[in-house]
Structures are given as structure tokens and as C-alpha cells.
Amino acid sequence: MAIYHLSVKAISRSAGRSVVAAAAYRAGQELTDERQGLTHDYTRKQGVEDAFIVAPDGADWALDRNALWNAAEAAEKRKDAKTGREYELALPAELDAGARKELARDFARELVARYGVVADVAIHEPGREGDNRNHHAHILTTTRTAGEDGLGAKTRVLDVASTASAEIEHMRGVWARQVNMALERHQVEQRVDHRSFERQGKEQEPTRHMGVSATALERQAAREIPGREPVTDLGKQNAEIRERNRVLEAARKAMEKAQELFSGLEGVVCGRGRNPTLSRGRA
């Protein structure tokens, strides 16, 4: 079943993060952070299926990953500056590798066209111990527009609370439409929806976010005993939520089937009621 996921988060100095290090890790490459004088080597990282950069017309200099992210660091002076923005996307397991790559590229192009930023795309394979359907992409974008001469103005529309939420919701809708178009092109019946269960009018209960620590513990437990029950409180809660949702979905389908049968019987009865009355007159 195709799964919808799009999350957005900032790469910020206030959290002690370097956008150069983030780009190196996601792309599985070696990059040098000139501001800090540190080299980040992730060339031995496994699971990176592909990595490429989408830049605005004329900003060819930004296709060099090392130059791009060092420019992003150099453009910011504040100690709490946001030096990058990351979009994490779930790619449909129902598509092949080529189709997943084009889908990620299409979304990156949309980000570049709408905000004038540079988008650095890294496509990752599912983890060896996790869900083998978990194909996903990390798209790291600049927080400034890019042109022929370098980075320009800040993309404030994504930084200000009064506009950021609406922009992110718009891009969530864009991603849902792009995924569904790709599924349709490849003759896959499933569709995704970026809206919450409540907005969709569904009674399903959302699962809780696991976080890094709980996810790592669950993966370690799965390695030790494949198929075992969850070991963390969050894992157990999510298992219960999934079971409740399964029961609700089964009940919903049963109700729909019963309604279809009732409608069919109602039609038969009504049809019988419309039989012409036999004439009682003499021949």
C-alpha cells in the first residue's frame, strides 16, 4: 500500500549542526566545511541509491556540492542561523528505481521553481533491519535564493510563522498530487492523501512518532529475534493503534458491503412493485 509522508525541518546552527555535514551524510560523500575547518567523510555510508542537485537557471556553480553548501554557511553570520531546510519524502515502493528518482526530481524542481532555491536530492534505500518498503528521499535546500552570482535573499516566506504553515501545507498537497500522478502513470491502483484522517473524514487513529532512540531499540530487537513483539512503550502503543485501525477498517468495509447488498435487495423489491397490474376486464 502506497504511504504518504512529507516532513520539513531546518538545519540550524543553534542546534550545533552544519549544513555541509548534513549534505555529506545524505549524499554519502566527502565534503569539507571551510568555516569550521572540518572534513566530513561519508563515502563508506551504505544505502545511498542516488544523489543529484537541481538548481535555478544560470546557477551552474551550485551543481558543485562542496561549493554550494560552503556558500550556504558563508552567507550566514548569526550564531542561530538556519543554513538549510530538509524535506523528507516517502517514495512509493510500488514504483521502480527509475520512477522513484524522477518523482523525487519533479518535487525538487517544484521547490526550485517556487522559491528560487537550490535542491540537493539524496535517494536512500530501505534500511537492512527496517521495513523493506521504506524507500525515501532527503531533499536539502538552501534558505536563500540562488542566481548566477551566488546566493541572494532569504526565503522569508518559509521562515515567518504567518506564511510558513500555509506554504508547507501547499507543498504537502503538491507532493500528494505528484505521487498519485506517478502511481497512475505506472498503473498502480493505490493513492495517497496528504490530509489528516480527521480532514479525510476517516475514523483511523494516527500512530505516534517513534523518534531516533525508540526506532533504534526496535530495530535492534528485530535483529535479535525477527518477528518479535515491540519492546518500547511507543512501539507497543503503535502496535495497538494499528490493530485498532485494522479492526475499524474491516468494520468499515463490512458496512459498505452490507449497504451494497441492501441497495441491491431494495432495487429488486421496488422492481417487483412496478409489475403492471393484470387487466380484470372481459375479453
From TrEMBL:
The keyword Chloroplast does not apply. Residues 190-210 are annotated as: Disordered. Transmembrane segments: none annotated. Residues 238-268 form a coiled coil. Residues 17-219 form the MobA/MobL protein domain. InterPro entries: MobA_MobL. It comes from the Bacteria. Signal peptide: none annotated. Keywords: Coiled coil, Conjugation. Residues 190-208 have a biased composition (Basic and acidic residues). Belongs to the MobA/MobL family. This is Conjugal transfer protein TraA. It comes from Novacetimonas cocois. The lineage of its organism: Bacteria, Pseudomonadati, Pseudomonadota, Alphaproteobacteria, Acetobacterales.
